[in-house]
Amino acid sequence: MSLTVTTANSTPSPAAQAVTPQTVRDQAAATGNPQSDSALAVTVPVITIDQTGTNWNLFGLPPNQEFAFNTGTIRITLRQEVFIANDLSSCARGVWAVHENLHVRDNAAILTRMPAEIAADPSLQAIFRDKQRFPRGDFALIQQAAENMIGDIFRRLTGNAARGHDTRREYSRVNQEIIRTCPGPHFHTVERGENLSLLSEFYYGTQRHYMKLYDHNRAVIGSNPNLIRPGQKLEIPRIP
Questions:
Q1: For the chain, is the Cβ count within 10 Å smaller at the N or the C terminus?
Q2: 3-class DSSP state for residue 217?
């Protein structure tokens, strides 16, 4: 490719924003998080692609004039936002922030890989290689196509990296740390398909504490420990 790709990270250490739990879940779903229904924090990476530094040559005369990219620079800027549920304690938000920093670092590392990824992409090579000509009237269309391709590469890489961290096992680890280290009550809103054995394993690493969960939340659950309903808010007690 005859063009240079440069990168800049505008938010190397983004401050976490406290938002509603539903906002976190919506943002997590939009980023493809497989655990979005139980997400309490999410990192959203966005890139801006600036092609104004590119140069091109014109060939021929109207109405059949053509253009080809020649030299110049494409600049990619990364901005990241971290959202954490505002119904968590400050201690719990701190634990989730540590987890989200894994995403922040991954996204920054992926940004540095983007020049090589763009140079290796066959579809982008077909646009930016020397002397590749296009109809003059397709200039805006070609630029938009290039931007879409670059964005797709970034989303694919960041999505793959995020799925490595956003697992039920990792979410279980984070919540167990919160229960172990953070004072005050910790709550769970029941989702469809859950039961007390699964919640015991998620929050304590074993299913054997399901009756302790029931005893602590008997007033909410009712007389049947085998029946919990979506939307019920259960308190997760600390177990010595």
A1: C
A2: coil
What distance, in Å, lies between the first and last C-alpha atoms of the chain? 62
CA 153 distance to own-chain centroid:
14
Separation CA 146–CA 51 (nearest Å): 9
Compute φ and ψ for 8, nearest 5 degrees: -145, 140
Q: Mind listing the pLDDT tens digit for each residue in 166-186?
A: 999 999 999 999 999 999 889
Residue 154 pLDDT > 90, yes or no? yes
Q: What are the CA-CA distances from residue 173 to residues 38, 169, 177, 210, 226 (Å)?
A: 13, 6, 6, 18, 25
CA distance 88 to 94: 10
Structure tokens at 218: 């008997």
Task: Name the amino acid, one letter, at 198.
Answer: L
E strand or H helix at 147: helix 139-165
Q: Which residue has the tokens 């984070």?
A: 174
Tokens found for residue 108: 């920054």
60 near 66, Cβ under 8 Å? yes
In this prediction, residue 20 carries a pLDDT of 96
User: What pTM was computed for the model?
Assistant: 0.89
User: Is the pLDDT assigned to residue 1 strictly greater than 80?
Assistant: no
Q: What is the pLDDT of residue 155?
A: 96
How do residues 79-137 score in pLDDT, each as one tens digit?
999 999 999 999 999 999 999 999 999 999 999 999 999 999 999 998 988 678 999 99
Residue type, 230: P
C-alpha to C-alpha distance for 17 and 109, rounded to whole angstroms: 22
Domains of the chain, first to last: 4-169 (no CATH), 185-235 (3.10.350.10)
